[in-house]
Amino acid sequence: MDILAKVYRKNDSIVFRKIGDEFVLVPIRKNVGDLDSIYTLNETAARIWELIDGNRSLREIKLAMVREYDVTPAEAEEDLVEHLRQLEAVKAVFAR
What we know:
The protein is of the alpha+beta class. It is built from three helices and six strands; from the N terminus they run E-E-E-E-E-H-H-H-E. The strands form two sheets. Strands 2, 3, 4 and 5 form a four-stranded antiparallel β-sheet that branches. A two-stranded antiparallel ribbon has the order 1-6.
């Protein structure tokens, strides 16, 4: 399957916050933040997180990245796939 055809959704037990100039993901377990598992995102990863909505394909997210940032389609795809793999590794997102 073409990876760009995949659609991802966010894990409902992850909270995204902007704190000062940093973007963080905090897993919530039993209504309490798991402070030992806070993940800091760079600006690109934070934008990818915002664009993941359970409806957009990775191809659509890649096109948004190309429009919003000064990157080539190949650079956008490479960044997108890398960030998605990291988000999957910490179970922050799941393919639908």
